[in-house]
């Protein structure tokens, strides 16, 4: 579910960014939401992450299994936002992404309950076609979006889902930006069909910023070193991938892990539309489940609870539409 939540905010902020690329197609109040040096969504983004070892307890069909241990885990992520068409009151764009996850672990056999060592590799891709329409509601800017989303593995496509979003810009000045929205998920595996959303960003003196994106993240940010930005806070993240022949089942299963990452984030604008990023801290897994791909996550056959672990992430993004930096 978290992947959907992240995508929801990604698409919402993405529409602001893509419309800003057309000089006279959007009011100045909405442009104020876009950060020149550090846009929330980048056209091209590459990341590599390392997660420290941790132990976990698990249940199969609600029966406890012996404790296992993840000895090493790393993943590479790539995503791209492309503007296909843009007009005065609407845009059509696409978001595509790929993730490769590699993990070495000591895990219990589901039948014999014996611990054995194994290395696993997973490939996951996701795509969406997003239509966004701009209008006014109650005298304020309103953004309506409809998305067609697919995802899958190296074996091909597995799911097709839909999403509808409405977002109202309550305030948009250079100091304060605030939006309120609602999302409808057309997905049989969704835990809830409707999700409320809220964003609040306030800039203070000396480069301090409070940045709230619910239910995704809460950050306290500070501009440093001229073209750098340090952030402290927490953000939801998700690992999703497909599993084949799990426990001898012929149906395709999907693994969903919701994580809360808390710690430090540093970004530096390198100029020429490049931004480098490093973030590190502690990761707490809120939910790890395996269920059939088109069934609700509440109807799971496997569940795990993990100990907190250390994570380190480094990335590089490119935004060719960013404004030139002024020193």
Automatic annotation (TrEMBL):
The DUF6268 domain, residue ranges: 68-319
Pfam families named in the record: DUF6268
Domain of life: Bacteria
Name of the protein in question: DUF6268 family outer membrane beta-barrel protein
Upper taxonomic lineage: Bacteria, Pseudomonadati, Bacteroidota, Sphingobacteriia, Sphingobacteriales
């Amino acid at each position: 579910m978290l992947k959907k939540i992240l995508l929801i905010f990604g698409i919402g902020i993405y529409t602001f960014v893509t419309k800003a690329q057309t000089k006279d197609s959007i009011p100045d109040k909405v442009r104020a939401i876009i950060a020149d040096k550090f846009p929330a969504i980048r056209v091209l983004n590459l990341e590599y992450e390392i997660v420290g070892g941790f132990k976990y307890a698990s249940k199969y069909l609600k029966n406890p299994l012996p404790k296992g241990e993840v000895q090493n885990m790393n993943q590479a992520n790539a995503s791209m936002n492309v503007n296909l068409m843009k007009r005065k009151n609407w845009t059509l764009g696409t978001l595509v992404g790929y993730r490769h996850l590699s993990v070495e672990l000591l895990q219990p056999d589901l039948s014999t309950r014996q611990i054995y060592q194994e290395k696993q590799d997973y490939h996951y891709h996701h795509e969406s076609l997003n239509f966004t329409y701009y209008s006014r509601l109650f005298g304020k800017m309103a953004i309506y979006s409809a998305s067609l989303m697919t995802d899958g593995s190296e074996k091909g496509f597995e799911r097709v889902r839909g999403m509808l979003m409405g977002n109202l810009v309550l305030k948009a000045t250079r100091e304060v930006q605030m939006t309120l929205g609602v999302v409808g998920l057309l997905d049989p595996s969704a835990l809830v069909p409707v999700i409320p959303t809220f964003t609040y960003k306030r800039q203070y003196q000396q480069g301090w910023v409070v940045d709230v994106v619910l239910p995704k993240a809460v950050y306290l940010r500070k501009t440093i070193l001229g073209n750098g930005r340090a952030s402290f806070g927490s953000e939801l993240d998700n690992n999703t991938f497909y599993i084949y022949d799990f426990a001898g089942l012929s149906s395709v299963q999907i693994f969903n892990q919701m994580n809360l990452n808390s710690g430090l984030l540093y970004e530096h604008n390198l100029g020429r539309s490049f931004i480098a990023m490093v973030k590190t801290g502690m990761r707490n897994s809120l939910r790890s489940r395996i269920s059939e791909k088109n069934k609700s996550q509440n109807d799971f056959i496997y569940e795990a609870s993990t100990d907190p672990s250390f994570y380190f992430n480094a990335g590089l993004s490119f935004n060719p539409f960013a404004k030139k930096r002024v020193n």
